[in-house]
Amino acid sequence: MVMYQHRKKRFDAVDLDPYGCPSIFLDGAVQCLANGGLLLVTATDMAVLAGNSPETCFVKYGAVSLKSKACHEIALRILLQHIAAHAGRYGRYIVPLLSVSVDFYIRVFVRIYTGQIKCKENTSNLGMIYQCTGCETMTIHPLGMKKLNAGCKLPVGPPVDQLCKFCRYKHHMGGPIWLGPLHDQAFVKQLLDSIETLELATSKRLIGVLSVIGEELDTPLYYVLDRLMSIVRCDTPSMVKFRSGLLNAGYNVSFSHANKLSIKTNAPAEIVWNVVKAWEKMHPAKREKLGKESPALAILTAQPTIEISFDLHPAANPESRKLHMQRFQVNPTANWGPGARSTTIVDPREKTSKRQRNQNKHKKKHQHISPSDSPPPKQQKSNV
């Protein structure tokens, strides 16, 4: 209500931190912010955003989530597209400053601006995901393509065939998701510089996470090393070796702050699978144990298209890793996560727990009616 009352006299910043989905607050939030105002949004319903309930995700966020090793980044991009959709209804658009997946929630920091032309161009920042059900390769399909002048044109597609070209399995489709940048690297650097001058209890963790974010490539989604090698039933190489294979092939690679075994790269999926096949050639998998229709056999029997070298590349080990920064937080206890929703009763007369109130509920319901309350017996009709 407060946000709707300030659509003329607007705020400079709004922070939404609800328990669960923030969707119901976004409509008012994008209207009550001044031009260039800061919107901070937290979402804790990660089970929905991470693919456990795609139909629920569509109801809450207007997008279908997918089960994927990159689910945390997909969650961030679903939330950003949802904010962009709310802003677009009022001729406004978003510019993400920082988007983080940490612990059991995601949090985004975006600026809200007014501008019809930019709103229309945001179509090119949205897209669908095609995920193979066999090898889990993900392909992006933008909803629009930028013109040389203002505006967007319709894309051509789909970018995949009915069956995956690597393993001949079908695809699942999810989205739409945000395809634009997750972070403003200039803002991240300023934030990092300011934190280094402060003495905070969590300074080491903040510096570590922001350092990884500062190294992230501006490329949607990522692979996970152990999952790639699990698909082809092969021994897992070291992270430095695998990164060197991609770098020596002429592509860039980085970590994602959302997963310590992530491989974020601008290399096409074909090159990534070439690196996997090159490693498997050096450390053969037991192909006789692979099923005839398994994704692993289809991938490994295909001929590689380029030569891959695993010689150590100078950029294979990033600075944040060399300096042993606290980049990824370890859970303090087993099964650590969000607590249950608060059930505190404010009224002292209602302090009796639900369990106590419901004691003998069924017994009371089925108590025998006393003889005085029973209806009189029906009289039998006489035959006279």
TrEMBL record:
- Key words, A-Z: Methyltransferase, RNA-binding, S-adenosyl-L-methionine, Transferase, tRNA processing, tRNA-binding
Pfam families listed in its UniProt record: TRM (PF02005)
Q: What is its EC number?
A: 2.1.1.216
Q: Name one GO cellular component term.
A: nucleus
Any one GO MF annotation of this record:
tRNA binding
Question: GO biological process annotations for this chain's record?
Answer: tRNA N2-guanine methylation
Q: Which reaction does it catalyse?
A: guanosine(26) in tRNA + 2 S-adenosyl-L-methionine = N(2)-dimethylguanosine(26) in tRNA + 2 S-adenosyl-L-homocysteine + 2 H(+)
Q: Where is region (Disordered) located? A: 330-384
Ranges of Basic residues composition bias in the record? 354-368
- Give, as one word, the top-level EC class: transferase
Which family would the database say this protein is a member of?
Belongs to the class I-like SAM-binding methyltransferase superfamily. Trm1 family.
Indicate what this protein is called per its UniProt record: tRNA (guanine(26)-N(2))-dimethyltransferase
Protein source organism? Fopius arisanus
